[in-house]
Write a structure and sequence with these properties.
The protein is an alpha/beta fold and 282 residues long. The protein has ten helices and eleven strands. Involved in the biosynthesis of the chorismate, which leads to the biosynthesis of aromatic amino acids. Catalyzes the reversible NADPH linked reduction of 3-dehydroshikimate (DHSA) to yield shikimate (SA).
Length: 282
Amino acid sequence: MNTPLHFAVMGNPIQHSYSPLLHSLFAKQAGLDINYEKMLVPLEDFESAVHTFFEQGGKGLNITIPFKLRAHELARGNLSRRAQSAGSVNTLWMEEGQLHGCNTDGIGMVNDIRRQGIALEGKKILLLGAGGAARGVILPLLESGCQQLQVVNRTAAKATELARQCQTNLPQYANIFRAGGFEHIQGQWDIVINATSSSLQHHTLPLPAGLFTQDSLAYDMVYTPDNNTPFLQQARKDGAGITSDGLGMLVYQGAESFFIWNHIRVNPVPVLETLRQQLISG
């Protein structure tokens, strides 16, 4: 009898994680026998917990708050382009005795947007926020073929510093990447992405009127059972015709981790539907 493949998600706190459900559904699709667990890791024990996991035959780890920066440091010698750009890691695995790291958040969001029939090629994209969540999606957005990407932040200096780093590390995109404060937002946008914590704090954002058209997508990285965050409510009032929370981003980033570990592409759509129903039913 084959031993199940061992995976886990490490964080602190961790009880809220849906990763075990996602990966059990992915594994069922793929015909794999896996054991995926939540691991509550004391803040001082993260590095030793990672080493122990892989020494004991673990195949792959997801990493969540507050360990993504430390995971990046652990895998510093073998980082994907996405992880280098994001400055953080949410996926770890071993290859030829070496620890490798990737960040699947950005490609997860891009794939979720495409799932909804929305092309990013040639689009004007406005990214709200310049923290870790924003950093994680910049490279996949730039690689999507968008016409323009502008990052804005309440503290403009934080956004312009992010732009400076991007122009240094990704000079091929310098002509389509802009940054500034919320006061620098002008015109209408095809896609507006909320990467701030405003919806978690039940706040709206200081956005100018007329930002959206009926063809615009408002996308919030935060998710709620009814797909109705404060940012999405604000966007609908301002005319956004298409709105989406970040539940699909969660599912699609998990699917990308699953592919990295197992080299199998799964269909995230039925998994997303299952998770949405579970959230609605409480």
